[in-house]
Design a protein that fits this description.
The chain contains six helices and six strands. Strand 2 and strand 3 form a beta hairpin. The protein has helices spanning 23-27, 31-46, 61-72, 115-125, 129-144, 152-168; strands at 3-4, 8-10, 13-19, 52-59, 80-84, 106-114. Strands 1, 2, 3, 4, 5 and 6 form a six-stranded mixed β-sheet that branches.
Length: 176
């Protein structure tokens, strides 16, 4: 099942939300609001200025496992995958492609979330599914902006941003 939900356009940030697993709505009835809140919060804090667009796909473990195998060579589901439209540096604000009409949002890429894994991790961590989903949307959005956690210094930077954005949302530090 695939349901395209209405795009969220809040100021300069547009989030296209696709619901591929309707069970998200059973597990987290305000899933749309949670994605919007977290996505706008991170982009407003980290990438002020240009109009931005990203897509968020809410799917299941089987789909994420297939994507993880295809793109990362890992045959298991994971909580979130990020697919940036282009390689970015966290030190440089995204820019429109040459020749793009002015005012057109810059496409950041796609974030894909696996429902069963997200719910399982939330239970195991003693946090609400909404808190964990917001954390993963923030985390995935930072990947779309070029942040990573492959090296210690980069990981500390990315985690610091996640902690700050989540604190703005009233969500406790996920790394404690």
């Amino acid at each position: 099942m695939f349901e395209s939900l209405p795009s969220c356009m809040t100021g300069r940030v547009q989030i296209d939300l696709a619901l591929e697993d309707a069970a998200w709505l059973q597990d987290l009835p305000d899933v749309e609001a949670a994605v919007e809140t977290a996505g706008v919060a991170v982009l407003d804090r980290v990438c002020a200025g240009p109009a931005l667009n990203m897509s968020v796909v809410l799917t299941d473990d089987a789909e994420v496992q297939a994507l993880n195998l295809r793109w990362r060579g890992i045959d298991m589901p994971t909580n979130v995958l990020s697919f940036p439209t282009e390689e970015r540096s966290p030190d440089l604000a995204p820019a429109p492609p040459p020749g793009a009409p002015s005012g057109l949002p810059i496409e950041l890429g796609d974030i894909v979330l696996a429902r069963e894994t997200v719910m399982r991790e939330a239970r195991a961590g003693g946090i609400t599914p909404r808190q964990h989903l917001c954390h993963l949307v923030v985390h995935g959005s930072l990947h779309l902006l070029g942040y990573d956690h492959e090296e210690d210094v980069a990981a500390e930077c990315m985690e610091g941003l996640e902690i700050a954005v989540l604190a703005d949302l009233g969500i406790p530090n996920p790394y404690q």
